[in-house]
Amino acid sequence: MSVYPFKSIFLIVALALYVSETLGLSSPPEINGNLTYLWPLPSEFTHGNDTLSVDPGLLLAVGGIGGNSEILRAAFDRYRGIVFKHSDGLSIFSRLRGRRPAYDINKLKVIVHSDNEEAVYTLLQSMQEMTESRVIGVMATKLRTFGIIFTLLFIYVLCRNQLANTVYGALRGLETFSQLCAFDYGAKSVQVYKAPWYIRDKPRFAYRGLLLDTSRHFLPIDVIKQIIESMSYAKLSCHRLTVCFLFMFPHIDLKLCQSVNVMAEVDIPGHAESWGTGYPDLWPSPSCREPLDVTKNFTFDVVSGILTDMRKIFPFELFHLGGDEVNTGCWSSTPHVKQWLQSRNMTTKEAYQYFVLKAQEIAISKNWTPVNWEETFNAFAGNLNPRTVVHNWLGGGVCPKAVAKGFRCIFSNQGVWYLDHLDVPWDKFYTAEPVEGINDASKQELVLGGEVCMWGETADTSNVQQTIWPRAAAAAERLWTSREAISTGNITLTALPRLLYFRCLLNRRGVQAAPVTNSYARSPPSGPGSCYEQ
Amino acid sequence: MSVYPFKSIFLIVALALYVSETLGLSSPPEINGNLTYLWPLPSEFTHGNDTLSVDPGLLLAVGGIGGNSEILRAAFDRYRGIVFKHSDGLSIFSRLRGRRPAYDINKLKVIVHSDNEEAVYTLLQSMQEMTESRVIGVMATKLRTFGIIFTLLFIYVLCRNQLANTVYGALRGLETFSQLCAFDYGAKSVQVYKAPWYIRDKPRFAYRGLLLDTSRHFLPIDVIKQIIESMSYAKLSCHRLTVCFLFMFPHIDLKLCQSVNVMAEVDIPGHAESWGTGYPDLWPSPSCREPLDVTKNFTFDVVSGILTDMRKIFPFELFHLGGDEVNTGCWSSTPHVKQWLQSRNMTTKEAYQYFVLKAQEIAISKNWTPVNWEETFNAFAGNLNPRTVVHNWLGGGVCPKAVAKGFRCIFSNQGVWYLDHLDVPWDKFYTAEPVEGINDASKQELVLGGEVCMWGETADTSNVQQTIWPRAAAAAERLWTSREAISTGNITLTALPRLLYFRCLLNRRGVQAAPVTNSYARSPPSGPGSCYEQ
């Protein structure tokens, strides 16, 4: 049994009774004799050297006060479908051959210590009070005809602290469990290699985001659902929609919010030209269509109205107010705006600040924590509401400045984490470090995490998923796995084989993840070959 | 009401009571005020100018002796899911606003004249005895509070002849119905514009195929299922798997066969090098790995064994034996093969024929109709089994020669219908004509149809769907719509707007169809914009 660093403050006691070779269950892993590939890597784990078969009729046994969770049962059914995808075809073959196989594992036990399914939506009282915590899953074998054998396969501990223990941690555990399961073509059943497994895991950052731009190209709700589903495979948690609200409104589906938090963005006062299509008064003039008209109460009434409507749909505590790329040039050339500025003795830069701060007040009044792109911090850090989360994008070095002033920060450096930059390879995504340049541990805590950004100028339904994956997964491991456990050194040896495997896993689950090692993202495979090598 | 050519031999009586403007149901189509876009175009239809709303709780009423079909009920549920995708979000909004809308249409009546769900698998006694025939769907409005209003929306007649009237025709009708339904953002409900509709439809060709190469890159079962599902949107019917059988076996799922026929291919004696990995004796020598060893009984025993196993899985009457690109060069340089040829006084070309004919006999003995690539016809047409279906690919002009000799033929001219040829635009796919060069109507009948080919050298899970769609749809209309009704002349005006719309429909249904008008297939959109224009 190989042992990985295991610094648990809890004592984990595991009974492991090895299944004998005579049961015929010792087929080697399909891909590689030495490793079961997990992505993202758990922070701590050990494993053994046994192979166990899993019953396609796997049952879920839930314990703890959160044991009645509908979300958990639905997720279990979903994962059972994923793990036993081949069981239909298999049963046909079994029937043809008259085989009735016996299995080592027929029950998955999950213990959930909180019955609060809503906790994930109130994440940010303190962002550190992680809700994906301390869920323990224990797997035991069935009663065999020749006696009782317990084989402890799998202990999964997600912990951050002892405050919260919700069902969402169990979902992470189910994902890990599903990655331990592999269909074995020899044994013709689902197997877990290298058992027993002891896994103790927790996310390094609470905020592990993917920005999805639904404005440049309309993304149908089916595609958004597919992407959210695939995010959970990589243990991404937060998801941001750039909301083109006129189009998006009829599409909002509350059920989307169950597995990830959805942070909406209303990008003001710039990037809002389209608003004037419905309300031309929001444009300073027909020839000056953005930034929005800062002078009118009507502008802020509309912002407030939109945020009121959106509050009913987005329970997540963060709301993104944009604030980037604001060119105030045409404000000063629009007579009534110019007059308004003069009467208040304001520069256009001050008016930009006035707009952003007023929007922040509106968001806060609706019980939202405002997020703004870094331009607002760069321009008037001293006046930003102290609750503001600064969202980096222009380059490195912003989060260190933001946390030094006490702000929280999200890392999205465009040089490494913009998915629409097709020339940025997986390893650049992988090695990007959100707390780079921040040495003080208490300041590092102010970095909520990071977000990879899928801007949609050249990404639509046809190719958005192959642009997101697999590179978003490289960032996902950076955000999930502890700094001690994440692959370093020659990542071509330590991380790449796992990422190749994870890309194939995404493919098997129907996600259009592109080849990993193409020099250009989302380019086709260069020739025939195995997914595990492309 | 505009009237299209309507040559029905049945009299169709339609009661149409127009819904008054005062009901607030007369919103214009979202995309275009003049047209509802159908793809492929029905062979005959008329429509009116009314707008009807459709109840999200739409019921299915089935009549005829096939009314108890499970397949029909499952398909109805699937299509209801597609048509009312937005109803969740909608109901949230309705609840917020306290609205309880009334609908014009709350029941879909479908009459199926045959209870034979298996008929589709015995298609080829005569390929002309189409099973997708004469299914009539009639839609009527619900009982309104202020009186009884019947609004006949939709008569759908699929006919080829009077021999078969199975549930599969009803599935085609459901697809057409779903394309008539559009979510209206103004009315916030699903609407049918231009009602009432009278549609009489039938497929021009029985064989409307897509080849999926699962050998060059492994395609997971989820992806194959997605592709089969999307084929039904374009009314494609036949589907061919190039079977890499060692990998495919555990994956076969009989349920796949319900909506399309699956023709498997075992491509022998060439393109079978991988067989020797399992059975090295199939290779003439370690340095001569293909064509398969023609001299050994073992070779044909393996072929027979494989075909026996596959017969249990593939109920479709056609089976593809390949026979293409056979380079017999190394046969004559392998001593024992050379000796075998000399002892029988055979040339290598004659040995190739010997192999192909022997494989045909094996397939026929298992109650299969053999399909062979055109090389077999080109090399020894006179000796081919007369039941052979000749599969064109090298260029134009082969089907005319094949049908002249009494063979049936499938059209797949690589210059126009190979999807891996990325420089072939949608309009080349659209204008390709399977019976080109065949004037005699009785000979035209021998062209079963055609097949677009998705060879997988540079297509894997990440991009196969964007390589297939939308160009496969262009061919699908050629294969479905009658020659009288298909768009001709300036197809940029008559077909392109509908194809743009159909591509968006595929996107909405989660299919990664690429932009239509790119000069290169599967390239990304060139910039932001509406799906309806890209």
UniProtKB/TrEMBL annotation, chains A, B:
It holds the Pfam family Glyco_hydro_20. The lineage of its organism: Eukaryota, Viridiplantae, Streptophyta, Embryophyta, Tracheophyta. GO terms for cellular component: membrane. This is Beta-hexosaminidase. InterPro entries: Beta_hexosaminidase_sua/sub (IPR025705), GH (IPR017853), Glyco_hydro_20_cat (IPR015883), Hex-like_dom2 (IPR029018), HEX_eukaryotic_N (IPR029019). GO terms for molecular function: beta-N-acetylhexosaminidase activity. It catalyses: Hydrolysis of terminal non-reducing N-acetyl-D-hexosamine residues in N-acetyl-beta-D-hexosaminides. Keywords: Glycoprotein, Glycosidase, Hydrolase, Signal. Belongs to the glycosyl hydrolase 20 family. PANTHER family: BETA-HEXOSAMINIDASE, BETA-HEXOSAMINIDASE 1. It is an enzyme of class 3 (hydrolase). It comes from the Eukaryota. Residues 1-24 form the signal peptide. It comes from Morella rubra. Its EC number is 3.2.1.52. The active site is at E325. Residues 38-180 form the Beta-hexosaminidase eukaryotic type N-terminal domain. The keyword Lyase does not apply. Residues 205-236, 259-482 form the Glycoside hydrolase family 20 catalytic domain. GO terms for biological process: carbohydrate metabolic process; glycosaminoglycan metabolic process.
